[in-house]
Every structure is written in C-alpha cells, then in structure tokens.
Design brief:
Largest sheet: 8 strands, mixed
Distance between the termini: 36 Å
Radius of gyration: 23 Å
Number of domains: 2
CATH class of the largest domain: Alpha Beta
Number of strands: 27
CATH superfamily of the largest domain: Peptidase S8/S53 domain
Helix content: 25-40%
Strand content: 15-25%
CATH architecture of the largest domain: 3-Layer(aba) Sandwich
Shape: globular
Structural class: alpha+beta
Length: 564
C-alpha cells in the first residue's frame, strides 16, 4: 500500500530538510491503561509504548476501492503522451478517469451506504473512485474492522494514533474494498535544514546562469500561469514580501489552500515552505502560486486529488517524500491512482529525488542505526511524476554559467537522490542515450533532470524573518516547476495550448539534442555516493540542468509540432 503523506506511512522532507526520527511517548491520552507496542502499519521500527484510544475518539480513515481497470492505466497514460496514438493529448478529468478505470458508480454508492448504515460519516468521495474518506469513533472502527487504535505523543508533543494490527475488511466489502487505510497518523519527521554559505543564489543569479535572461527579454515571467506547491506546514506572508524586496521582484500574493487540519501558523517545516514558494517566485515571479497546505496526517491521494479536482494549476512542485521501502507504495493503490489521474489530466508534477544520494533510507530506523541499503525516494520514483535531482553550480566572475557537478557530500552522507525503483516498471517513454545501462533492470529510473541543490550553491531564502541560504533537491524542484511555467506561458502566447505531462516531452527533446548539448548542461562529473554522473542520462542528475533559453522554446515547439 502506498504511504500516506504521513498517515499511511510517515514522510520526511526530501529537500533542504532531512527527517529526524520521532520516538514515541508513554504519555497517556485516554482512560485505558493497557500498554501496546509498535503496530503493523507504523513506519517506525523500534517498539513504542502507547495506550488504547478512548472509544469515543474521532477517527478518520479511508476505504481503498478496487480499481477494475487499473491494469490498463499505464498503457492509456502512455498513449496520451504518444503523438502516434489516437488518444494523444486527450486528457481525462478525474471523473472521466474514475468512470473508465474504477468501480461502477452503483458499487461505490453501495459501499458508501454500507458505512453510513453502520454509523460512519462519509467525508469525501474522490471523483477518480480510488477510495472513500470516512469518519467514525475508535469503538466503531474496532467493531467494524477488528482492530484497536493506540494513542501516542511524539517528542514535540503532537498527538497521533496507530493501529495495533491490520484492519480486516468485512466479507461483504471484499469485492469492492481492497483495504482499510489511514489509521496510522504518525507525524512527519521534524526538519533538519541544509544551510549553505552566505549570499546564495538570487533570482538574477539564476537568470544569468541558466538562460532565463533571454526568456525575460521575450516577456516570459510566468504571467497567466498557476503553480501548486504541496506543503505540510505553512508560511508567513511577511517573509514573501521581504524576499520580494530583497531581490527586486514582485508578483501576485501567494494563495493558501488549506486542507482540513492544516497548520495555521508556521512550524518546523517553515524553511521548506519558504524555500519552495520563493524559488518558484524567483523563476516565474508573475505566476499565481497556490500553496496546498495539508496536515501531517494527510494522504498523498488527499492532496493530489484536491489539486486535480480544483483545476487551478497544471504544474505542481513537491519537496516531500520518504524512501520507497518505508513508504511502501504499490501499483494501483490510492496514491498511485491519484498520481496517475493527475498525469492523465495533463498535470506535470515535479518531485525532489531525495538528499541521501543513492541511500535514501539513511534517516529511517530507530535513530540508533542508519540504513545504508540502496533505495530511492517516493513519490519521486513514481512514473507519473518528474523526478528532480541535484547539482553544485559554478559560475564565472560575471555570473555566467561555468559548470556543474553532481551533488554529493560523502562526509555529510548527502547528495542527489537517484537509482532504480523496486516497485514501478520503467515507463515506455523513458528511453534515450544513457537510460539503458548496466544497472537497468526494467524498473523506473530516477532522477529525470537536475538543478542547483548543493547547499554550497544554495538558494537565497527569507524564512522566519531571516535571510538564509538553503539547499537540497527541494531547491532544484521548485526551480524546475517555475521554469516550466515559463514554457507554459510561451506555449499560451503562441496559441499552442497546454503542455500536459512533460516527462515524455523532456525525454524526446533531450534525446533529439543530446549530441549537440543545446538544451541541457550534461553533468558528467561527480556522483551521488554510488552512481557516477556520465554522458547522457545518469542516476545522479538525469539529463542534467536546463539551458532554459533553448529548452523552453524547444518544449513549446515540440508540442506545437505534435498537435492532436
């Protein structure tokens, strides 16, 4: 089952902050005195004492629905991105996706009625028919699914609950429901910022180094475009105003879109949110940014489905994730369905590839022993998103581009996330020089692209009233999201229409121009603690970083030259 953003399995920041594991508390939250050890669904490896939840405690959870047609999704998604297909650029709304691949509407209604008849409240019913969001008491959950809930408090004082075993799907629901999820609301790991030296990269620096100056001369500044940023914290508008003043840019106010239970005041993830929002603003200052703010108990599917159904943005930036073995994604689970639905709706979701190089589980475990197994980050490794790795940028004295190396810090055990999935097959469009290599095994390979991530060449950010320099692949990710907003603006000006899911386009144009190096800075020096940067695509930096003055028009031209 795919991990919740936090609840199905806890997450950490994949960008400038790395998770510090949370030890459970033995504090009592309810009248029960029965101690319980670590549950089956918890992502924590060390036993943690807790106490049974009060029977009247309100519990929110999901019934994950059978998706009868999901086996066809990969083929159908590839067809939407294939100019030779009759389905090319025939995007599906969330409702159309659900009607095509999900249960019949009558069956979904029947499942909903089963829960309502037993006293549960139907909270949400996503249009893609992947799950039902429900609410009830701990006693109702125990009675219906034969599972008890355990209340705990983490080291910061935040309360959460976990199941003491696996929830049993009642026999009458098994033809329609695959599992009961979302019972583990363990909080996300607290952030550990990756700060760099003074100054940092300002908007003008990025513009000169990556060819944005040439796009500005064409009037490309993000006007008319919208970008959704996924956050598990919130921001202070005064920081955005201070960033604008310090960097000499201006744009529309960032709009918060808060999911139920989201923070209203900044917390430990504030640096991450500030980095994401301000980096997008540095590249595409006139774009409208929607900050989708979710509680740490939210599912990825909650957030992605909301973005798709709102329909306000076609470019999304995500700097959060967790290593694939701990996140536990599966093909066809609600998170995977949500991401597939977003792809088929024509959204481009950029996700940071992680900051532990090829060893993405380094910060997992019980805090006493580090996990050095080779692993990648989820959801960055999903075939329905664009995975963004990281580099160290060097510039000439005048600020123009000099070169880049793959980001790795052996002493700090950090670097650009990259490698192979253990779950997802490699999509048909992931081809080109360097993609098929000695490590290839038929599974999804990441990252797809790269951008400045090393804290030593980090982004200038204002957070909590202070100017900072912050790095990580979550610096490179909003950099890419903002850059592609410029491509979307150029396409709109040319009457070309929406760009759709960009990963197949990126691979097509990168392959066509790899020999002349006109679209990407091909990073061939450095590594990610295991995999070296090489000519063409590689596991450390993907295709490399963009030459945006050439790449942006090339992407628009590709879409223009391959109309429906």
């Amino acid at each position: 089952m795919a991990g919740r953003a936090v609840g199905r399995s806890t997450i950490r920041l994949a960008g400038p902050v790395l998770g510090m594991l949370l030890a459970g508390s033995t504090l009592t939250l309810c009248a029960s005195t029965a101690p319980v050890t670590a549950p089956a669904e918890s992502g924590v490896t060390a036993p943690m004492a807790g106490h049974l939840a009060d029977p009247t405690e309100t519990i929110e959870f999901e019934a994950d629905l059978v998706m009868p047609g999901f086996a066809e999704v990969a083929t159908a998604a590839a067809a939407i991105s294939n100019p030779a297909s009759a389905s090319y650029r025939q995007y599906l709304s969330a409702a159309a996706f659900g009607a095509r691949f999900g249960l019949p509407a009558a069956d979904v209604t029947q499942v909903a009625q089963w829960f309502v008849a037993r006293g549960f409240e139907l909270v949400a019913q996503p249009a893609n028919r992947s799950y039902l969001a429900l609410r009830g008491t701990a006693a109702q959950v125990h009675s219906a699914f034969n599972v008890s809930l355990v209340d705990r408090i983490d080291t910061s004082g935040a309360a959460y609950h976990v199941p003491d075993g696996s929830a049993a799907v009642p026999a009458g629901l098994r033809p329609f429901v695959t599992m009961i999820g979302g019972l583990d609301t363990s909080p996300a790991s607290r952030p550990r910022p990756r700060f760099g030296p003074a100054n940092g990269l300002h908007p003008a620096d990025l513009a000169k180094a990556y060819g944005i100056d040439g796009l500005r001369a064409q009037g490309l500044d993000g006007s008319g475009q919208s970008i959704a940023v996924v956050s598990f914290d919130t921001f202070d508008p005064r920081d955005i105003a201070a960033f604008d003043k310090a960097t000499g840019i201006s744009g529309p106010p960032v709009q918060s879109v808060r999911l139920a239970g989201a923070r209203k005041t900044p917390g430990d993830g504030q640096d991450e949110v500030s980095l994401d929002l301000e980096t997008v603003r540095a590249i595409a200052p006139k774009a409208q940014i929607y900050d989708y703010e979710a509680p740490q108990s939210a599912d990825w599917s909650d957030i992605i489905n909301r973005i798709v159904e709102d329909g306000m943005a076609q470019i999304v930036s995500i700097s959060w994730g967790r290593c694939e073995p701990v996140a536990g994604p599966t093909v066809g689970d609600p998170d995977d369905v949500a991401l597939a639905s977003a792809e088929m709706a024509g959204l481009s979701i950029f996700v940071s590839s992680g900051d532990q190089g090829a060893y993405d589980c380094l910060d997992e475990g019980d805090g006493l022993q580090r996990d050095f197994s080779v692993a990648v980050d989820y959801p960055s490794v999903s075939p329905h998103v664009i995975s963004v790795g990281g580099s160290y940028l060097s510039v000439h004295q005048d600020g123009s581009y000099l070169g880049e190396v793959a980001w790795q810090d052996p002493l700090g055990q950090s670097g650009s996330g990259g490698g192979l999935s253990n779950v997802f097959p490699r999509p048909s469009w992931q081809v080109g020089p360097g993609v098929a290599n000695g490590q290839s095994n038929g599974n999804r390979q990441v990252p797809d692209v790269a951008g400045p991530a090393d804290p030593a060449s980090g982004m200038f950010v204002v957070s909590d009233g202070q100017g900072e320099v912050v790095g990580g692949t979550s610096a490179a990710t909003p950099f890419w999201a903002g850059s592609m907003a410029l491509a979307a603006q150029l396409a709109a000006k040319g009457g070309i229409g929406r760009l759709g899911f960009l990963d197949p386009v990126i691979y097509a144009v990168a392959t066509a121009h790899q020999a002349d190096g006109s679209l990407f800075h091909d990073v061939t020096v450095g590594a990610n603690l295991l995999y070296p940067a090489t000519a063409g695509w590689d596991y450390a930096t993907g295709w490399g970083s963009p030459r945006l003055d050439a790449l942006v028009p090339a992407i628009a031209a590709y879409v223009r030259d391959h109309p429906h």
